[in-house]
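hey m, so remember when u said the tokens were messed up on ur end? i reran from scratch. heres the input so u can diff it against urs
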Amino acid sequence: MAASHPTILIVDDTPENLSILGELLQRDYRVRAANSGRRALQIAQGHPTPDLILLDVMMPEMDGFAVLAQLRETPATRDIPVVFVTAMDGTHDEEHGLDCGAVDYITKPIRPNIVLARVRTQLELKRARDILHDQNSYLEAEVARRMAENQLIQQVSIHALARLAETRDPETGNHLHRTQEYVRTLALALRRHPRFIDDLNEQHIDDLAKSAPLHDIGKVGIPDHVLLKPGPLTPEEWVIMKTHAELGARAIAQAEADTEARVEFLDIAKEIARHHHEKWDGSGYPDGLAGEAIPLCARLMALADVFDALISKRVYKEAFTHETALNIIVDGSGKHFDPDIVSAFVGEFETFRRIARTYSD
């Protein structure tokens, strides 16, 4: 028999019934036989997996209902169609069998034409289901592949834009990677906090981390004599430097306007770019927002950005130790930073240190 022919498992404790069904089916199908429920389960889980099972109901030790129940509980066999073959002709028995998951019912004595027609119908239905399943599996895999590809393109695009700003400010080094991981760490630490539990779900945290590298994108609009000045800025130059927050938010808003649909991470990126220099007490810029009027994403970014600036060497200052940076941020709790975010930072200080070492300049 060709290997491509469907495999049918016939199960009956009476040898004569096995012989009758076997002779009837073997001309067109690969036939396997079992004379007990337990042997049927062994064959069903072997290779090749049966395409259809003709299952006697009335068998000693383990009847057809018990066999079907175990078939349905086992992942490898749960989708095999089962047709009950029985001498019982009561409507209640037939309904019970169908309720248990049988696809059809054939009564004894066997009528060859009826058996062949029912078998052919169930195999055609199974073939159609298999084709549909394969198509769905392919479509699901293709959707997953394209989503992953889009995510990668999105991530590369974000980092390309962020690197554009970074090329204008070469001292930042791995600043983008560090601040991105700092923000992710803080968000994960706060996701079960009563103040933040409604906002910091898994998707939002992912969007936060994805958006973080764009926080200083506005620096591309700052003149070289200010951005690259090898020393402290004058008050006039500082006014110019502070415009990078508005410039970044405006650029992202324009990109957002060019899209046909709302993009969540661009909303977050815009808020981060504009507000990551706001302070909890209202003394920050560009809008002088205070407390919870400052978007949560910007409050997280503010602490991440300041910590990284403190531990990084600049032409106008040496790098502070991690411990000194910790003390400065703790001192800024309730003034520069959201107190609960500072508490999360203290709890995750060792994680911050590890991130700083991993992405050191």
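this time it looks ok to me. Residues 112-167 form the longest helix (56 residues). if urs says something different then somethings off w ur setup not the seq
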